[in-house]
Automatic annotation (TrEMBL), chain A:
Keywords: GTP-binding, Hydrolase, Nucleotide-binding
Listed Low complexity bias regions: 21-30
Compositional bias annotation for Pro residues: 9-20
A molecular function (GO) term: hydrolase activity
Taxonomic classification: Bacteria, Bacillati, Actinomycetota, Actinomycetes, Streptosporangiales
Start and end residues of each stretch annotated as Disordered: 1-30
CDD domains, A to Z: Ras_like_GTPase
Family statement: Belongs to the GPN-loop GTPase family.
Protein name as it appears in the record: ATP/GTP-binding protein
Top-level division of the source organism's lineage: Bacteria
TrEMBL record, chain B:
Record organism: Actinomadura logoneensis
Protein name: DUF742 domain-containing protein
Superkingdom per UniProt: Bacteria
Length: 221, 117
């Protein structure tokens, strides 16, 4: 089972989601008045892998945090009060943004990788340009599920090994451990560093561009 | 629209704010702009939204974070405000369709923006 701690236990509704910056920590850098086109990239990974760190290292605002609360009906019976169960799921996620130009602003979302999050994927992150799977080589298995779901959603992605400045298994070993298709880019990064995180995002955009040139996207179809 | 689906799953407070409805049509990164100032009789949430979006666009997800309300609740509030002409919304235009790639021009713009970081 994946760690569930990147989803805080359902916080009291009145409490503001506790993000690194807090909800009203400071006057947020406002968007340009001409901003009209929001874009999304999602960074997926297990707890503690550095998603928020990566968002924060490239974002023009301190990462903010919010949540979505969703209910699915009819999943067994709630034994506590013996009524048809509705499962309430709270998914917390962080985000930041990068103003690309006068019109376009790119939002980066740090999304939890564990199972209970994925039924919200389309609603929250449908329409994303692509995804980054952030991997901690000490917990490679945390990434298996995310990669599987991204493939299922036909969301193009790159995989970035967050080294936190340390050494670890070589990329070929990581690729093998992830059973990662040869065509999926696999890069190293240090999510604390802006240049490094920026390069991961650039790698993703290049990958997306390259996919345009693959006439038969058999892997992604 | 589908209106009154009484799904009382959310805490009562959310139910009160939204009348128990759901709406997923506003994207997380749709940009909201206030069209009027706060008026007497508006809910405190509506007043806060109008103040936040008064001088510049604010994304749905940023409103959610600043108001400390779940995204789905903010969407409902915004839908009402949109219907009443209190806000306008700039929907994302470059998002790829499901299972499609982003278009090359969009990718080029993103690449330029990232290089400029």
């Amino acid at each position: 089972m994946d760690s569930t701690t990147s989803d805080p236990p359902a916080a009291p509704p009145a409490a503001p989601p506790a993000g690194p910056a807090g909800p009203d920590a400071s006057a947020p850098a406002p968007l340009r008045g001409t901003a009209a086109d929001g874009l999304k990239i999602v960074i997926v990974g297990g707890f503690g892998v550095g998603k928020t760190t990566m968002v924060g290292s490239v974002s023009e605002i301190r990462p903010l945090s919010t949540e979505e609360v969703m209910t699915r009906a009819g999943e067994g019976v709630d034994e506590a009060d013996a009524v048809p169960a509705k499962t309430t799921t709270t998914v917390a996620f962080d985000f930041g943004r990068i103003t690309l130009n006068d019109r376009q602003v790119l939002y980066l979302f740090g999304a939890p990788g564990q199972q209970r999050f994925w039924f919200l994927w389309d609603q929250l992150f449908g329409g994303s340009l692509g995804a980054v799977v952030l991997v901690d080589t000490r917990r490679i298995e945390d990434s298996w599920y995310a990669i599987d779901r991204l493939e299922h959603h036909r969301m193009p992605f790159v995989v970035a090994v967050n080294r936190f400045g340390e050494r670890g298994p070589s990329l070929p070993k990581v690729r093998a451990a992830l059973d990662l298709d040869e065509h999926v880019p696999l890069v190293e990064c240090d999510a604390r560093l802006r240049e490094s995180s920026k390069n991961v995002l650039i790698e993703l955009v290049r990958h997306l561009t390259a996919l345009h040139e693959r006439p038969a996207r058999e892997d992604a179809r | 629209m589908s209106g009154r689906r009484h799904e009382r799953e959310d805490p009562d407070r959310y139910f009160t704010i939204t009348g128990g409805r759901r709406d997923a049509s506003l994207d997380l990164v749709a940009l909201v702009v206030a069209e009027i100032g706060p008026l007497p009789g508006m809910s405190s949430e509506q007043v806060r939204i109008l103040r936040l979006c008064r001088d510049h666009p604010v994304a749905v997800v940023e409103l959610s974070a600043h108001l400390a309300l779940p995204v789905s609740v903010v969407r409902i509030l915004l839908r009402d405000m949109l219907a009443d002409g209190r806000i306008s919304v700039r929907h994302p235009v470059s998002a790829p369709e499901p299972e499609e790639l982003p278009d090359l021009e969009t990718l080029k713009q993103v690449l330029v923006g990232l290089h400029n970081l």
